[in-house]
Amino acid sequence: MKKIWRETLDRVTPYEAGPTLEQVVRELGLPTVLRLSANENPLGPSPRVIETLKAEAGRAHLYPDGGSIVLRQALGAWIGVDPSWLIVGNGADELISFIGRAVFDPGDEAVLPHPAFEPYTIEAVLAGAVPVTSPLRGYDTDLDDMRARVTARTKAVFICTPHNPASTLVPRGPLRRFIQSLGAESPLVVLDEAYRDFCDDPETPDGVGLVRDFPLVISLRTFSKIAGLAGLRVGYAIARPEVINLLNRVRAPYNVNRLAQVAAVAALEDRAHLERTRALVLAERPRLAEALRRRGATVPPSQANFLLVKVGDRAGALRQALMKAGLLVRDGAGVGFPGHLRISIGDAAGNNRILEVWDRTLS
After folding, report:
1. Longest C-alpha distance within the chain, in Å?
2. CA 156 from centroid of its chain's CA atoms
3. Alpha carbon 3 to its chain's center
4. What residues contact residue 264 under an 8 Å CB cut-off, 6+ apart?
5. Tens digits of per-residue pLDDT, 183-196?
6. CATH fit for domain 7-45+272-362, picks 3.40.50.1220, 3.90.1150.10, 3.30.450.40, 3.10.310.10
7. pLDDT attached to residue 347
8. DSSP labels for 105-168?
9. What is the CATH number of domain 47-270?
């Protein structure tokens, strides 16, 4: 029989996003469900974004700006780079696929922490590359171990800071020294900064500065978290213009739809809403973490908009109890941390409900 499908597909496990919120509401028979499993913005999008989407809906029959020019101009002004240093994608996931298509030949290697965001591995495998995994040191990225795994075959190194799902930061000093140690024959260094907007640690690295200083660094960022645009899928990469030019060669025309583009521009224009989201997370994150530690849980120091919480063998029972109460949290086993729960930071009322169910279930 004629062979049709690539053997590589046997090595790929599709990303499981889980049931939709509407499905869960129907299955549980509850009037509302609070999803704290997907690291979504607890405030939702800016009112300015909603009004912009309403105004733009009548133009949905028109193709979008193929190069996201207006959005790149707004982004460039926001973060202080020329638009030629930016490329926009249908979520950061698509940008990772660009890297896979533009960088890897069969047999190349990609060094990445484990566990980590699944698309790093998926895109490397689909391109025929070999993922070389570096175990976390507890909850921290082990840069020394990652450096030891870099060889002449390494085409890219993926570093996620703050790390998903561990929530921890890669400090700026060690990260800079790691990149410097790669030398003149450095592979591409992909710095995933999806959760950077929620950092308050003075050691937070700055991907923009690293891109300016090192020609083979790419910073990935997103509108999904801080701007509340997860449903519209807008991510962007910052890199040297020569790198952006190469990534554009594998980008499909019109890859970011027009509603997503205008919504992202509107989100940048409402700085107050972005600050409200950040302020909420920075207030509620330490409060919830400390409350869970007082209850005996292990909670690594988070710099993201979620906590990774070690519960032990009662993690499953607690997750089920929370679900029955209309509170969805992520099973840590599904992201490489059995015995843990990943809990998105909600508003004060939602976080208090987490604690109430916790006390009823584990007391």
Report:
1. 62
2. 18
3. 36
4. 71, 74, 75, 88, 223, 227, 229, 232, 234
5. 999 999 999 999 99
6. 3.90.1150.10
7. 96
8. -TT-EEEEEES--THHHHHHHHTT-EEEEEE-BTTB--HHHHHHH--TTEEEEEEESS-TTT--
9. 3.40.640.10
